[in-house]
Amino acid sequence: MLFCKCDVFTDTTNCTYCQEHGETTVAVAWCSVCVDALCEKCTGAHNCIPSFRHHDVTDLSGEVKVKGKRKAMCTEHKQESLEFLCQDCKKAVCQKCCILYHRKCDAVVTIPSQMVTMKTDLTEMRKSLSKKEGETKLRVKEQKLQEQRERDHYSLMKSHIHSACQKVIDRAKKKERKLLDRMEDISHKHIGQMKADIKTGEMSVLIYQQQTELIDLALQSECDMDVYEMYQGCEAGDVEAVGDADLKERGRIASVTFRQDTGKLSKALDDLQLGEIKVLYESMLDLKATPVLQDTIDITVAGNRSTANPNDVTVLVGNDTDTVVVTDWGNTSVKSFYVKNNQTQHSKLSLSGDPWSLTKLTHNRVAVTVPYSEQIVTVKVKPDLELLTTITTSKQYVGITSLTPSTLAASSQSPPCVDILDMTGNVLRSISPLHKGNDILQYPNFLSTTRTGNILVSDCGTSCVVCLTPEGDVVFCYRPTGDTALNYPRGITSTSTGDILVTDYNLNRVIHLTESGQFEPLIATYK
Description:
With 527 residues, this protein is an alpha+beta fold. It contains seven helices and 31 strands. The strands form nine sheets. It has a four-stranded antiparallel sheet, with no helix packed on it. It has a four-stranded antiparallel sheet with strand order 14-15-16-17, with no helix packed on it. It starts with a strand and ends with a strand.
């Protein structure tokens, strides 16, 4: 039979006391206070002790499982149980400990009196952990999907590399076949000529042999006329072989060689480009490099009602395609631009109001603020744009940044604040930081998230950059004077190395701050 001592089931088949004396006796009862199994004899002895008579003793004759209460004993006073809780010291104590060590403590209570509070706190903690568990499961699920997508992506790139290499091999094979065919044609002609020469030579040998034999016969003849006729024939040139004229024929192949330009071939192989692998790191930026213009995208598209007014931008990478997503304030829309089949293409998603800022949620989703409509919309980037959800908000949010998969930070001008929101638009916390009794924020139009999860705020009203924790504490406030002062800060971002970059609209430059909010030398100016 098993009894549960707290969370651990203990074998209660044999008497605990008898086992201590080397005996094995079947247990018939269980004392939940002593946490011991008792045989019939020990049960009688147990019940005879006055202080044990009120213990909870359970009969073990039935097939039952009884959950006993674990009796925790004081480590210093071995015979005393822990019955009290010192809330000042946050420690469970026995009665003697209370008298000896905790007389000056203000809050010493019994453990049972705190059960409701502790269970309530544990219940809330359990809810919080369950929520985090669910969020983490969703994140892990998304990461697994992303991992599989990346595996498929790498397999596709591998196939493309093999294909590019095979094309080069096919072209080289084609050139090889062409050279071999040319060589075979020349070889056939040359060898054919040589075979003809050999045959002609063999015929000439036969003719010369025959003529030699005729001369021998003439010399051996006793008839002077035979000698004279042979002499006349040789004098007239009849002795020349019939093939001699062919041997003097022009246009014959003398020799064939294959000359290979090793240097040119090596250079061609060195210059051969199968392709190029580009790696885009999240938030990576070489701050020491000189900015170089790579490309310019004209976001004016057919159907624009007015001049394009790009306000915020981000880049998403997926399915081997880089997609630039832009909010166009002047045309009440979000636009995406990408290259497909070597052609620049675009997508346009019209909204109910003018969009201001956007933030990347996942590898193919963004959230966009629509202040005047009091909305935040989520958009899927495929790379064509697809509206997913429309979140109605209680304020006109302008700046936005993603904190976790389930929370956003959004900024408002009226009142000036930064709110922590869930994905349904509920305000979890509102942050309005003060400095010397005055509001730090006035027009917090742009936000970003640091690598440590803090919130960067670019405020053009107070001309400062503020770093806040999600709980509302001010990490730093960058508002210097002089040459390093900000004039009209707008877009802001943080790199994976912790560096902070903020654009100054009026001064036409990008300011570089360290992770702790210290000014670094100017990295870029623009016109």
